[in-house]
């Protein structure tokens, strides 16, 4: 089942190669159908999922390279399932969004996109470290191509920066993985959660993982690849980058750092909190000064992910669930905002904020939708952003009041840059001829946003079902993180 | 019952609807509100409490949407839905020329929905939900005329200043959850009276502080933002950029009073902290006086009323601060009537003058628009506390309570309140005299002035009736224990009860203040009309200081806005571009490049170079290991 969900997009890649030789429309159709099929298939995971247990479900196991102890092992729990769904949900939307805006090498674009989806789902499902690592790295390739081939004018620099940044991080992760195998005797992720690591070893392993994950999140000061990558990437690439790829770093913290290295995780809480707070305030201030729409949203992503890491490392149910929910929310909201930017970019071929103004006059529907996502980004009650941010801040307040207070200033700054953006783009008089000629959104575009809007409001008013999926797994995670694995001497040191 | 009200509006939100739909909805809700009021407040029905559905559940944290209607809520429901209905009707006439009416009415209805959520909620998070909802509605309505740069800026400012308040409010909610483990009013208030929670708590670098005081002060920051109290007041005058019905509904009668409502609602917490009450009293008193001084010199007719609102909210807060919550709610109610009346009649004047708001261009209008003049006069008299009109009962009750509280802060508040009362009466009559009396200053506009249509006059007359009788009808509120369980008083906090037994001179002093104010205004603006100009020129410094509202906007600009921008630019250009990218990322790349060049240089291909290197290496090794 899981393998089917994971590799269906790859099958789609094959289908495109075979069927759509030079036919761009065919390639689009196949990609859309395959990604939709994947989405519905993944929904069936949800119906079969038992949210009362924290154990991994839909397990699949088969020998792969027995000589090295490498197994093909897949499974999901309440933490990874939401991310799988998020990925399968966003991909069809991205493909729809690229329907008209991508005109060169359509076939290759769709292939890269489906391959990317496949690898990303695989990353969230993998329960073997080597499998995980291979998929983690494999995912870089299609993303690198998406930015480097279909990107903006400065795409090559951005793609290189993205690739090298993340690769540099992953190298250290590989070292940590090998060290874990050496000590723990297995590559199996569930088994390693119970492996006893000494405190010093935990610290080193944590640092090894940390760089890799921190680049992906991205945490300050490893964030500078993100604005460049976003600005240059095509709309679909930006959405998937913000919506899913950024979540992999935080997912890594959840899956590996916290349960496997609980002592080190607690030891490094001050550092994580510190970096996250810097991220929240620093990048919010930077966002305030941006002149490019996408750059502004990219910086706001860094700021929002700062909230997420604070939530995860507050080590209580509210913070953790808020953190996971906020990742989903951010996938929806930042994804939505990038799609919205794409809509106007397709029309005006510029993202420079100063060239807009008075857009509400010609695109009222667009303005309303943009307002909704702005409010969700600002965390207004009734939208999904509020539930996530509120739980995170509540968790942070229980863990450390000072941190919560500084983080809460992010709410004020966040409102400041988003409202400033909104005012500059939508309000005021229409001055340029380009703006006057704009047309409101067409049906295809509305179809993209409808599901996103439903989710924004649904999670805002009734987040129960979403939180329910993760309850048991988060409880289990808390138990794991509270077990002190290291010996007495090292605990004293901590 | 309330769920019907809430549900009713839920259905209308977001639809492009005709006026009929919104007004129909409003009338139904107003009728329901009256029914509820009679059931609970007059018929002595029980308090309604209902849980509708659970909202957020995470671990021990559980919050639901629910409804709580006691006498305080019932009073608020009447005020909110009643005035909102009148203003919907008024808007038909006032907004007749506007092409975006459906948008306007849907915003107004959305606002009313959020406000009803705010007052009927039975837990803190729902209060916060409504709180932010009205904030959004206010943002949208202030910026309704989005073509105007100033309107957009005012809208943003309102939202951001409120966010600063929400910052405190949110932290207060976290604190409540941390201490009490729940956000439900009933459970929190019940526990607050016991010893089942930690009395002190470590708060960052303040060390151990009193739990209740901390929570109350954090909540109060939220109230200050929403109710435009001193230091967080700067958004309210700018909010007058919105259409006048909006100013009347949101920025006078309902939304800005949410802060007062919150403090009264949480009286079981505030009562436990003398410090918090003192702060509330002082902030309220300072606002009352400060805003009144600024109101003295404004020339924009709406700004005068806006500062007056600010000042009256100050009264309500210091009433709450001296434990006279019932007087605060009473004044909230009467104020809603007469201030909405003032704003709407100002709107009628503006309408008559073809969207002219500068009082210096008005004058002598009483002959042209007599009905508007009459209702404006009633509103003014009600505000300034003319005997037996609305303000006479409620404002005097507040001043008497402050006097009777016998505490130092209470006395300070009483003195400041008295001074503010003189000023109130002065600026209110200055407004009336400048607008309606004397000679027309702009003959052209005067000639074209005309009385407003019936959709505007009707609501004015209803509100005028409210301003005349609301005080008399509502006066039982401040007698005895009218609010029952809605308000809790700590033993010894008897200011409200004692207020009825103060000396006669205390009771009549506010009337004296009224007379002084009227006399001064009459002297300056009817008798010696050249005097104000001479005064302004003689005391230019003071005049400018007041005209610019004590320069708070400039101060905040210099203190917060500009530094934030500068720091943002600095972080971006220096932090990201120069340091992290320059030295870090691209620096490493460049270093790798240089190293590669260097290594490349070494691959010379000449055997003797390699041989030489090998000999050197060998020598080094031998030296090290020998």
Question: What key attributes describe this structure?
Answer:
A: 494 residues; mainly alpha; 23 helices; 2 strands; globular; B: 626 residues; two-stranded antiparallel sheet; 72% helix; disordered N terminus
**Overall pLDDT of chain B:** 82
Order of helices and strands of chain B: HHEEHHHHHEEHHHHHHHHHHHHHHHHHHH
Main beta sheet of chain A: strand number and arrangement? 2 strands, antiparallel
Strand order of the largest sheet of chain B: 1-2
Q: What's the alpha carbon Rg of chain B, rounded to whole Å?
A: 30 Å
Number of strands of chain A: 2
Unreliable runs of chain A = 487-494
Could you tell me how far the N terminus lies from the C terminus of chain B, measured between alpha carbons in angstroms?
A: 97 Å
Radius of gyration of CA atoms of chain A, rounded to a whole number: 22 Å
Low-confidence residue ranges of chain B: 1-8, 10-17
> Which protein chains make the most extensive interface, counting residues with beta carbons within 8 Å of the other chain's beta carbons?
A-B, 59 and 53 residues
Please identify the structural class of chain B as seen in this structure. mainly alpha
Report the biggest beta sheet of chain B as strand number plus sense, adding barrel if it closes. 2 strands, antiparallel
Percent of residues of chain B in beta strands? under 5%
What does the overall shape of chain B look like? globular
DSSP E strands of chain B, number: 4
* Oligomeric description of these chains: heterodimer
Q: With helices defined by DSSP (H or I, 4 residues minimum), what is the helix count of chain B?
A: 26
Strand order within the widest beta sheet of chain A = 1-2
């Amino acid at each position: 089942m899981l393998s089917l969900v994971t590799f269906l997009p790859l099958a789609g890649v094959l289908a495109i190669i075979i069927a759509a030789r030079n036919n761009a429309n065919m390639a689009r159709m196949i990609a859309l159908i395959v990604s939709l099929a994947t989405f519905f298939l993944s929904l069936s995971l949800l119906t079969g999922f038992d949210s009362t247990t924290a154990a991994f479900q839909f397990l699949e196991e088969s020998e792969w390279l027995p000589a090295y102890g490498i197994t093909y092992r897949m499974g999901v729990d309440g933490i990874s399932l939401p991310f799988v769904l998020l990925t399968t949900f966003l991909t069809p939307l991205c493909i729809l969004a690229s329907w008209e805006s991508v005109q060169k090498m359509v076939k290759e674009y769709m292939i890269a996109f489906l391959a990317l989806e496949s690898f990303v789902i695989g990353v969230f499902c993998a329960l073997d470290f080597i499998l995980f690592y291979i998929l983690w790295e494999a995912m870089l390739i299609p993303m690198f191509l998406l930015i480097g081939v279909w990107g903006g004018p400065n795409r090559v620099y951005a793609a290189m920066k993205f690739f090298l940044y993340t690769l540099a991080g992953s190298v250290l992760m590989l070292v940590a993985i090998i060290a874990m195998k050496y000590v723990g005797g297995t590559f199996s992720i569930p088994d390693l959660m119970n492996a006893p690591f000494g405190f010093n070893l935990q610290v080193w392993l944590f640092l090894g993982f940390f760089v890799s994950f921190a680049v992906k999140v991205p945490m300050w000061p490893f964030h500078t690849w993100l604005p460049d990558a976003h600005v240059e990437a095509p709309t679909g690439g930006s959405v998937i980058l913000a919506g899913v790829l950024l979540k992999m770093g935080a997912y890594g913290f959840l899956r590996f750092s916290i349960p496997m290295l609980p002592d080190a995780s607690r030891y490094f809480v001050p550092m994580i909190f510190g970096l996250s707070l810097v991220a929240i305030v620093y990048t919010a201030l930077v966002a305030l000064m941006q002149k490019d729409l996408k750059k502004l949203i990219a910086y706001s992503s860094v700021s929002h992910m700062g909230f997420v890491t604070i939530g995860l490392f507050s080590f209580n149910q509210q913070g953790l669930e808020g953190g996971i929910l906020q990742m989903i929310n951010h996938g929806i909201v930042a994804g939505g905002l990038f799609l919205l930017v794409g809509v106007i970019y397709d029309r005006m071929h510029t993202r420079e904020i100063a060239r807009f103004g008075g857009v509400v006059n010609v695109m009222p529907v667009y303005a309303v939708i943009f307002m909704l996502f702005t409010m969700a980004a600002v965390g207004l009650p009734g939208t999904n952003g509020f539930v996530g941010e509120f739980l995170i801040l509540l968790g942070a307040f229980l863990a450390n009041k000072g941190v919560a207070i500084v983080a809460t200033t992010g709410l004020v700054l966040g409102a400041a840059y988003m409202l400033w953006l909104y005012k500059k783009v939508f309000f005021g008089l229409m001055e340029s001829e380009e703006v006057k000629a704009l047309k409101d959104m067409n049906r295809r575009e509305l179809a993209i946003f409808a599901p996103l809007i439903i989710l924004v409001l649904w999670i805002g008013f009734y987040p129960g079902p979403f939180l329910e999926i993760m309850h048991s797994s988060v409880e289990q995670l808390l138990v794991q993180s509270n077990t002190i694995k290291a010996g007495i001497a090292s605990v004293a040191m901590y | 019952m309330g769920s019907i009200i809430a549900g009713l509006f839920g259905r209308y939100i977001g639809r492009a609807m005709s006026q009929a739909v919104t007004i129909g909805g409003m009338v139904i809700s107003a009728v329901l509100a009256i029914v509820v009021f009679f059931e609970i407040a007059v018929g002595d029905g029980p308090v309604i409490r209902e849980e509708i559905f659970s909202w957020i559940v995470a671990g021990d944290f559980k919050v639901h949407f629910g409804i709580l209607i006691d006498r305080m809520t019932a009073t608020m429901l009447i005020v909110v839905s009643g005035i909102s209905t009148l203003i919907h009707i008024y808007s038909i006439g006032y907004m007749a020329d506007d092409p975006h009416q459906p948008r306007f009415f849907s915003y107004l209805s959305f606002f009313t929905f959020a406000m009803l959520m705010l007052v009927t909620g039975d837990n803190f998070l729902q209060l916060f939900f409504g709180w932010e909802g009205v904030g959004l509605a206010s943002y949208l309505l202030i910026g309704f005329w989005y073509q105007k740069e100033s309107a957009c800026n005012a809208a943003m400012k309102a939202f951001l200043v409120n966010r600063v308040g929400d910052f405190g409010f949110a932290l207060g909610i976290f604190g409540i959850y941390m201490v009490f483990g729940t956000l439900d009013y009933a459970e929190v208030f019940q526990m607050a009276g016991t010893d089942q929670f930690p009395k002190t708590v470590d708060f960052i670098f303040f060390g151990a502080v009193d739990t209740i005081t901390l929570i109350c002060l954090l909540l109060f920051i939220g109230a200050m933002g929403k109710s435009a109290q001193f230091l967080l007041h700067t958004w309210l005058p700018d909010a007058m950029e919105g259409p006048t019905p909006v100013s009347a509904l949101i920025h006078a009668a309902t939304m800005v009073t949410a802060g007062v409502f919150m403090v009264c609602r949480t009286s079981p917490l505030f009562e436990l902290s003398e410090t918090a009450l003192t702060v509330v009293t002082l902030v309220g008193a300072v606002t009352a006086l400060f805003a009144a001084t600024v109101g003295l010199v404004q020339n924009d007719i709406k700004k005068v009323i806006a500062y007056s609102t600010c000042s009256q909210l100050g009264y309500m807060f210091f009433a709450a601060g001296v434990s006279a919550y019932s007087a605060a709610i009473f004044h909230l109610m009467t104020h809603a009537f007469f201030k909405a009346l003032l704003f709407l009649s100002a709107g009628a004047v503006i309408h008559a003058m073809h969207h002219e708001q500068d009082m210096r261009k008005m004058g002598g209008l009483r002959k042209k628009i007599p009905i508007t003049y009459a209702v404006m006069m009633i509103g003014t008299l009600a505000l300034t506390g003319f005997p037996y009109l609305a303000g006479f009962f409620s404002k005097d009750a507040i001043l008497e309570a402050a006097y009777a509280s016998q505490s130092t802060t209470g006395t300070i508040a009483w003195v400041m309140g008295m001074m503010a009362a003189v000023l109130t009466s002065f600026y209110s009559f200055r407004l009336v005299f400048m607008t309606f009396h004397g000679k027309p200053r702009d003959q052209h506009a005067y000639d074209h002035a005309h009385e407003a249509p019936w959709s505007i006059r009707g609501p004015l007359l209803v509100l005028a009736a409210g301003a005349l009788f609301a005080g008399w009808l509502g006066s039982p509120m401040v007698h005895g224990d009218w609010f029952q369980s809605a308000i809790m008083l700590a033993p010894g906090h008897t200011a409200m009860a004692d207020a009825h037994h103060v000396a006669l001179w205390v009771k009549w002093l506010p009337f004296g203040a009224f007379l002084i104010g009227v006399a001064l205004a009459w002297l300056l603006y009817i008798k010696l009309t050249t005097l104000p100009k001479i005064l302004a020129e003689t005391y230019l410094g003071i005049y400018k200081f007041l005209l610019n509202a004590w320069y708070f906007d400039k101060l905040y600009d210099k203190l917060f806005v500009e530094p934030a921008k500068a720091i943002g630019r600095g972080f971006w250009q220096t932090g990201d571009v120069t340091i992290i990218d320059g030295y870090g990322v691209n620096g490493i790349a460049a270093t790798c490049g240089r190293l590669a060049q260097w290594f490349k240089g070494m691959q010379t291909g000449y055997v003797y170079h390699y041989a030489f290197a090998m000999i050197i290496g060998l020598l080094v090794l031998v030296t090290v290991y020998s």
